[in-house]
From TrEMBL:
Lineage: Bacteria, Pseudomonadati, Pseudomonadota, Gammaproteobacteria, Pseudomonadales
Pfam families on file: HAD_2
Originating organism: Pseudomonas syringae pv. ribicola
Record-given protein name: Haloacid dehalogenase
One of the record's GO molecular function terms: protein tyrosine kinase activity
PANTHER family: 5'-NUCLEOTIDASE (PTHR43434:SF20), PHOSPHOGLYCOLATE PHOSPHATASE (PTHR43434)
Amino acid sequence: MTDSTVIIFDMDGTVLDSAPGILESLTYAIRQMGHDFIPVAETQKLFGPPMKQIVAELLAPYADDRVDECVHLYRSHYREQGLYKSFPYTGISNALSHFSNRNYSLFIATSKRQEFAEKMLTYNGLFNAFQSIFGTSPDGKLDDKADLVKALLASLAKPPSSVFMIGDKRDDMQAAQLNAIIPVGALWGYGAIDELKNSGAVALADTPWALPSVVDSLLPAA
Protein backbone atom coordinates (compact mmCIF):
# COMPACT_ATOMS: atom_id res chain seq x y z
CA MET A 1 0.00 0.00 0.00
CA THR A 2 1.87 3.04 -1.24
CA ASP A 3 -0.38 5.41 0.70
CA SER A 4 1.19 4.15 3.93
CA THR A 5 4.78 4.34 2.76
CA VAL A 6 7.03 6.53 4.88
CA ILE A 7 10.39 7.90 3.75
CA ILE A 8 12.71 9.43 6.34
CA PHE A 9 15.48 11.62 4.96
CA ASP A 10 18.68 12.66 6.61
CA MET A 11 19.24 16.36 5.82
CA ASP A 12 22.94 17.29 5.55
CA GLY A 13 24.53 15.40 2.68
CA THR A 14 21.20 13.96 1.54
CA VAL A 15 18.70 16.77 0.97
CA LEU A 16 20.98 19.78 1.39
CA ASP A 17 24.65 20.31 0.66
CA SER A 18 25.50 22.24 3.81
CA ALA A 19 29.26 21.70 3.69
CA PRO A 20 30.23 25.31 2.83
CA GLY A 21 28.47 26.76 5.87
CA ILE A 22 29.58 24.00 8.25
CA LEU A 23 33.22 24.37 7.20
CA GLU A 24 33.10 28.14 7.52
CA SER A 25 31.60 28.03 11.01
CA LEU A 26 33.95 25.26 12.17
CA THR A 27 36.94 27.21 10.91
CA TYR A 28 35.75 30.32 12.72
CA ALA A 29 35.14 28.46 16.00
CA ILE A 30 38.42 26.54 16.07
CA ARG A 31 40.44 29.64 15.19
CA GLN A 32 38.66 31.53 17.96
CA MET A 33 39.98 28.82 20.28
CA GLY A 34 43.49 29.87 19.27
CA HIS A 35 44.33 27.21 16.68
CA ASP A 36 45.54 27.71 13.12
CA PHE A 37 42.90 25.42 11.65
CA ILE A 38 42.62 24.97 7.89
CA PRO A 39 39.95 22.52 6.67
CA VAL A 40 41.09 19.85 4.23
CA ALA A 41 39.21 17.47 1.95
CA GLU A 42 39.07 14.85 4.70
CA THR A 43 37.27 17.24 7.07
CA GLN A 44 34.02 16.86 5.16
CA LYS A 45 34.06 13.10 5.74
CA LEU A 46 33.52 13.76 9.46
CA PHE A 47 30.08 15.24 8.83
CA GLY A 48 27.07 13.25 9.99
CA PRO A 49 27.37 12.62 13.75
CA PRO A 50 26.39 15.25 16.36
CA MET A 51 28.55 18.38 16.30
CA LYS A 52 30.17 17.65 19.69
CA GLN A 53 31.65 14.48 18.23
CA ILE A 54 32.94 16.30 15.14
CA VAL A 55 34.47 19.13 17.17
CA ALA A 56 36.11 16.72 19.62
CA GLU A 57 37.82 14.97 16.72
CA LEU A 58 39.00 18.24 15.18
CA LEU A 59 40.34 19.55 18.50
CA ALA A 60 42.16 16.32 19.35
CA PRO A 61 45.33 17.15 17.32
CA TYR A 62 45.69 20.30 19.43
CA ALA A 63 45.23 18.37 22.70
CA ASP A 64 42.33 20.71 23.41
CA ASP A 65 39.36 19.33 25.34
CA ARG A 66 37.27 22.54 25.37
CA VAL A 67 34.64 20.90 23.20
CA ASP A 68 31.56 22.58 24.67
CA GLU A 69 33.09 26.05 24.34
CA CYS A 70 34.02 25.40 20.73
CA VAL A 71 30.58 24.01 19.89
CA HIS A 72 29.00 27.14 21.39
CA LEU A 73 31.19 29.33 19.16
CA TYR A 74 30.33 27.18 16.17
CA ARG A 75 26.59 27.36 16.74
CA SER A 76 26.63 31.12 17.34
CA HIS A 77 28.38 31.66 14.02
CA TYR A 78 26.30 29.04 12.22
CA ARG A 79 23.02 30.55 13.44
CA GLU A 80 23.91 33.94 11.95
CA GLN A 81 25.85 32.94 8.83
CA GLY A 82 26.64 29.29 8.17
CA LEU A 83 23.14 27.87 7.89
CA TYR A 84 22.39 30.18 4.95
CA LYS A 85 25.29 28.72 2.96
CA SER A 86 23.51 25.53 1.98
CA PHE A 87 21.62 24.49 -1.12
CA PRO A 88 19.48 21.57 -2.31
CA TYR A 89 21.22 18.84 -4.28
CA THR A 90 20.37 18.86 -7.97
CA GLY A 91 17.45 16.52 -8.52
CA ILE A 92 16.29 16.26 -4.90
CA SER A 93 13.23 18.45 -5.53
CA ASN A 94 12.20 16.15 -8.36
CA ALA A 95 12.60 13.10 -6.12
CA LEU A 96 10.50 14.70 -3.38
CA SER A 97 7.80 15.59 -5.92
CA HIS A 98 7.79 12.01 -7.21
CA PHE A 99 7.22 10.63 -3.72
CA SER A 100 4.61 13.25 -2.83
CA ASN A 101 2.67 12.51 -6.00
CA ARG A 102 2.44 8.90 -4.80
CA ASN A 103 1.17 10.00 -1.39
CA TYR A 104 4.26 8.82 0.47
CA SER A 105 4.75 10.55 3.82
CA LEU A 106 8.10 12.36 3.93
CA PHE A 107 10.05 13.26 7.07
CA ILE A 108 13.44 14.68 8.05
CA ALA A 109 15.56 13.11 10.81
CA THR A 110 18.74 15.11 11.30
CA SER A 111 21.47 15.38 13.92
CA LYS A 112 21.35 19.14 13.39
CA ARG A 113 19.56 21.28 15.95
CA GLN A 114 15.83 21.55 15.27
CA GLU A 115 15.92 25.34 14.87
CA PHE A 116 18.74 25.16 12.33
CA ALA A 117 17.06 22.41 10.31
CA GLU A 118 13.78 24.30 10.09
CA LYS A 119 15.49 27.55 9.07
CA MET A 120 17.63 25.83 6.43
CA LEU A 121 14.73 23.97 4.84
CA THR A 122 12.62 27.14 4.86
CA TYR A 123 15.46 29.18 3.35
CA ASN A 124 15.86 26.62 0.57
CA GLY A 125 12.13 26.34 -0.11
CA LEU A 126 11.79 22.73 1.03
CA PHE A 127 10.14 23.01 4.44
CA ASN A 128 6.66 22.21 3.13
CA ALA A 129 7.89 19.13 1.28
CA PHE A 130 8.01 17.27 4.60
CA GLN A 131 5.25 16.23 6.94
CA SER A 132 7.47 16.89 9.95
CA ILE A 133 11.06 17.76 10.83
CA PHE A 134 12.84 15.89 13.62
CA GLY A 135 16.08 17.49 14.79
CA THR A 136 18.05 17.45 18.01
CA SER A 137 17.48 19.62 21.07
CA PRO A 138 19.82 21.38 23.54
CA ASP A 139 19.22 18.70 26.20
CA GLY A 140 20.94 16.13 23.97
CA LYS A 141 18.29 13.44 24.54
CA LEU A 142 17.99 12.62 20.84
CA ASP A 143 21.60 13.14 19.76
CA ASP A 144 21.83 9.43 18.92
CA LYS A 145 20.38 9.01 15.42
CA ALA A 146 18.71 5.71 16.29
CA ASP A 147 16.86 7.35 19.19
CA LEU A 148 15.82 10.22 16.92
CA VAL A 149 14.38 7.83 14.32
CA LYS A 150 12.66 5.84 17.07
CA ALA A 151 10.97 9.01 18.34
CA LEU A 152 9.85 9.87 14.81
CA LEU A 153 8.34 6.42 14.26
CA ALA A 154 6.58 6.59 17.64
CA SER A 155 4.90 9.83 16.56
CA LEU A 156 3.13 8.22 13.59
CA ALA A 157 -0.61 7.81 13.96
CA LYS A 158 -0.55 4.27 12.60
CA PRO A 159 2.13 1.77 11.57
CA PRO A 160 3.07 2.27 7.89
CA SER A 161 3.40 -0.63 5.49
CA SER A 162 6.95 0.32 4.45
CA VAL A 163 9.50 2.69 5.97
CA PHE A 164 12.75 3.81 4.35
CA MET A 165 15.71 5.74 5.75
CA ILE A 166 17.63 7.70 3.11
CA GLY A 167 21.05 8.90 4.24
CA ASP A 168 24.68 9.35 3.30
CA LYS A 169 26.47 8.23 6.47
CA ARG A 170 27.02 5.21 8.69
CA ASP A 171 24.81 6.51 11.49
CA ASP A 172 21.84 6.76 9.09
CA MET A 173 22.17 3.14 7.99
CA GLN A 174 22.69 1.89 11.54
CA ALA A 175 19.73 3.91 12.84
CA ALA A 176 17.56 2.29 10.18
CA GLN A 177 18.69 -1.21 11.11
CA LEU A 178 18.17 -0.63 14.83
CA ASN A 179 14.62 0.51 14.09
CA ALA A 180 13.89 -2.33 11.63
CA ILE A 181 13.36 -0.05 8.63
CA ILE A 182 14.92 -0.13 5.15
CA PRO A 183 18.29 1.68 4.82
CA VAL A 184 19.09 3.25 1.44
CA GLY A 185 22.45 4.92 0.89
CA ALA A 186 22.78 8.29 -0.84
CA LEU A 187 26.06 8.26 -2.77
CA TRP A 188 25.93 11.97 -3.62
CA GLY A 189 26.58 12.96 0.01
CA TYR A 190 29.56 12.95 2.36
CA GLY A 191 29.87 9.22 3.01
CA ALA A 192 31.85 6.68 0.98
CA ILE A 193 30.33 3.70 -0.80
CA ASP A 194 32.17 1.20 1.42
CA GLU A 195 30.98 3.01 4.56
CA LEU A 196 27.36 2.70 3.43
CA LYS A 197 27.65 -0.92 2.29
CA ASN A 198 29.46 -2.02 5.43
CA SER A 199 26.92 -0.32 7.70
CA GLY A 200 23.94 -2.12 6.21
CA ALA A 201 22.57 -0.25 3.18
CA VAL A 202 20.29 -2.62 1.27
CA ALA A 203 20.43 -0.41 -1.82
CA LEU A 204 22.39 2.59 -3.09
CA ALA A 205 21.30 5.53 -5.22
CA ASP A 206 23.99 7.27 -7.27
CA THR A 207 22.09 10.55 -7.59
CA PRO A 208 18.84 12.11 -6.35
CA TRP A 209 17.46 11.52 -9.85
CA ALA A 210 17.93 7.77 -9.36
CA LEU A 211 16.38 7.67 -5.89
CA PRO A 212 12.70 7.22 -6.88
CA SER A 213 13.37 4.11 -8.95
CA VAL A 214 15.58 2.64 -6.20
CA VAL A 215 12.92 3.15 -3.53
CA ASP A 216 10.04 1.99 -5.71
CA SER A 217 11.94 -1.19 -6.61
CA LEU A 218 12.11 -2.10 -2.91
CA LEU A 219 8.39 -1.78 -2.26
CA PRO A 220 6.40 -5.01 -1.95
CA ALA A 221 4.39 -5.95 -5.01
CA ALA A 222 0.81 -4.71 -4.93
